[in-house]
Amino acid sequence: MEKHTLIKILRHWACFILTAVLAASAVFAAAAGQDEVQAWLELAQEAHEKGDDAASFRCAEQAANAGNAEAQYILGWMYMNGIGTEPLQEKALEYWRLAAGQDNPDALLALALVYINSSHPEQDSEKWQEYLLKAADLGHPVAQASLGSMYYYGYNLEQDYGKALKYLRLAAEQENADAQELLGEMYFLGNGVEPSVETSLAYTRQAANQGNANALYYLGWYYENGIGVEQDDTRAFEYYRQAADLGNISAMASVGWMYNTGTGTPASLQQALDYYERAAAGGNAYAQVRLGEMYEDGEGVEQSYEKAAEYYMQAAGQGNALAQAYLGLLYEFGDGVELSYDKALEYFRLSAEQGNDVGQWGMGQLYQFGLGVELSFEKAAEYYRLSADQDNPDGLECLGYLYLEGLGVEQSTDRAMELYRLAAALGSEEAMYQLEIYGD
User: Fold this and answer.
1) What is the DSSP string of 58-122?
2) Alpha-carbon distance 9 to 117, whole Å?
3) Is the pLDDT at 32 greater than 60, yes or no?
């Protein structure tokens, strides 16, 4: 599941439209009976709607200098973003501090965001914690969701599922989609709560209905796997597609796979490539491996070992075991890269240490033929057996050969034939050939 950060949760809040902020402040001023302040705020709003940001800034400044906390927050926001004025962070902080001194939750949250995500001196004093906690206690849903996320993941705060649950529930009650989505995860995994697919699904739906990309992705996963709902590939595809179009990288990879296999939607290799490429550009290792396979085999693209190696490198750099095994093969035969048994050994070993059957088979190949290592049929048999135990057809076939010839293992034609039959059932053409030769 994709990890939340303060930046991620605050993204939507930080993109508030100025018109809406000004309108809310004008209402506040009117309710407080501040006629003059209200007039300035209304003029600021009118100027902004007409596209005259300079006039809007001057009017907001009048209201802020009159001591109105909402106007001070707005003016700080305009200084921070250079709206109607040149961007001046210190002036923004000055007005936000004034508003925060009047317990304005938006200003408190804004200050927390600045200090936690910058090299500002006040970051070291952890002043941001004070601002964020106060904003949350004043009922700001984004601050509550942020605190909940930080406690949940142990991000800049000691992990505490109890406190995470407290703040996430408060935010979810105010229909904060990020909090709802994370609560869905908590109840699915049983982190700090009794596991409940039903409750998890309910929170996930609430967040998805508000257009939360992560929640849409998880809802697609529920339908794809039939968890808590009737299995439905078509609905899974639709949720994945919505999530992908909102920028969820994992969903892009899933949509690519569904187009690739014709699952839940008509097959389309071009659409699969498009989504795989988008997911790979976003760092999704699965999509990078699939693109590498497609370029290696010339599936829907012009065959290119060089492009295959490029994508495998990206995924292998993230620790993907299958990509590491595929890179080992490219280095073993010099396909798209300079032939190097040392490199092949490096990548096969990384893959095999993660338990990948292809990497284990690759290690067996190196030991069987003494490529980059001292020849050892015993070591080859050891790695082939690990691969064969995971029903890898190449591992089964190669282990069968060692038994047939008595290399590194006690010779046994019966055992060799047994392994060949298993490999042949999994599609190994070499095993089928051997069975024909021995009339099995």
Assistant:
1) HHHHHHHHTT-HHHHHHHHHHHHHTSSS---HHHHHHHHHHHHTTT-HHHHHHHHHHHHTS--HH
2) 13
3) no
Residue 218's nearest CA partner among 265, 262, 256, 178 is 178
Tokens of 416: 């060799």
C-alpha distance across the termini of the chain, in Å = 48
Which domains occur in the chain, in start order?
A: 1-138 (1.25.40.10), 283-354 (1.25.40.10), 376-440 (1.25.40.10)
CB burial of residue 302 (10 Å; 0-12, 13-18, 19+): exposed
Contact in structure between 263 and 233 (CB atoms under 8 Å): yes
Query: pLDDT tens digits for 250-299?
Result: 999 999 999 999 999 999 999 999 999 999 999 999 999 999 999 999 99
- Quick one: CA dihedral 153, 154, 160, 164, positive or negative? negative
* Residue among 226, 268, 273, 270 at smallest CA distance from 252: 273
| Vertex 197 angle, CA 192 and 200, to 5° | 65
**Listed residue (254, 223, 227, 228) closest to 240, CA to CA:** 254
* More reliable by pLDDT, 127 or 102: 102
Provide the b/e sequence for 46-77 (b: ≥16 CB within 10 Å): ebbeeeebebbbbbbbbbbeeebbbbbbbbbb
For residues 111 and 105, give the distance between their C-alpha atoms in angstroms, rounded to a whole number: 10
List all residues 6 or more positions away from 177 whose beta carbon is below 8 Å from its beta carbon.
Answer: 206, 207, 210, 211, 212, 215
Query: Rounded distance, CA 123 to CA 62, Å?
Result: 31
Q: What is the C-alpha separation between 209 and 204, in angstroms, rounded? A: 9
